[in-house]
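Proteins fold reproducibly. Take a sample protein:
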Amino acid sequence: MVVELISVGTELLLGNIVNTNAAYLSEKCAELGMSLYYEVTVGDNEERLLDTVTTAINRSDVIILTGGLGPTQDDLTKETVAKALNLPIVEDRHTRERIENHFKRSNYKVVTENNWKQAKIIEGCKVVDNQNGTAPGLIVETQEGKRVILLPGPPNEMIPMFENDIYEYLNQINPNVIYSKMVKICGIGESMVETEITDLIEAQSNPTIAPYAKSGEVHLRVTASAPTVEEAKKLVKPIVKELKDRFKENVYTTDEAEALEDTVVKLLKKYDLSLATAESCTGGLFTGRIVNVAGASDVLKEGFITYSNKAKKKNLDVSKNTLKKHGAVSEQCAKEMAKGAAINTGSDVAVAITGIAGPDGGTDEKPVGLVYIACFANEKVTVKEFNFKGNRQKIREGAVIYALDLLRRCILNNYK
């Protein structure tokens, strides 16, 4: 079934409110196996809203509107949908009683006249009680088989209503479910990933493969539609296996909830390894990503932020000669930082990052964005040189991602 989302509210168009409702409903519709082709935001204007609703009814099976069900004059959703469907507005006694009881329980004992506007519904619709507010949800089923669902705009009213009532309603009317599996790749770019799977994408029908470029990563979502979850899983499984076979150790997880740092901490625990970190240009961002993972205290021994040359010499035993001859941003310095962090803390593995994050400080020989990342593992040090583009924050974040990936690969290559 094709579903369309319409978010109503001028405040959304002005950017006064972030449209979290659309993101939530998009995810839920995908979970239900519904095809979301259109997502529209329209202001509190009857003419434009009427045009939007009419267009949606003509091209989609299910239309979900959020917002515009309140008591004020600019709340036009219900009235405009009724006009589009050529249906009258009538008062619902049940909803009127609920509004009365709501105000009796609240601090506002007097019900102002405009609140009774919310007790009016589209004739023949199904009323969905609002357990967290006054405006009910409405489900209109047309003779042509279309479903128009009206939900309140506030997320603390809309989300419980959707989860308690609308989700099951949609689940019953939709013949298929959708199942997805995410293949997360690190260390190679989006263009290379797409080139490697061109044949799969060109031949795809069900399941489908959708690439998503992330900072330093590429995620491939494999999605299948079937009458049951079990059947959809069977369709997805061979495609995921093929992707893992093609990208090998570039794939770090197929768990959508698992981040790169989660994988790294899992590997450290699996092989009973302790970790030390030494950061210069990233200033603790790398260690922070590790600490974000629950249970990081089992593997992380110590972290150093050695921003100055003096700190590098004092805490990591970087030699004065190395700093003088090669500089703090060099392969040699990164190597000594990693080794010094491991030895001085008694850790099994260590990661070191040193570079020029900018915007100043770069030269022709060592431009802004030049970063060296080193990993000490199994008594050996691996050093990689990177040239990141972008502003200071982007360079630092890129360095962290590639440092996590280097650590992951070093663990696999040395302890697997």
User: Anything to note?
Assistant: The chain has three domains: 2-173, 177-253, 260-415.
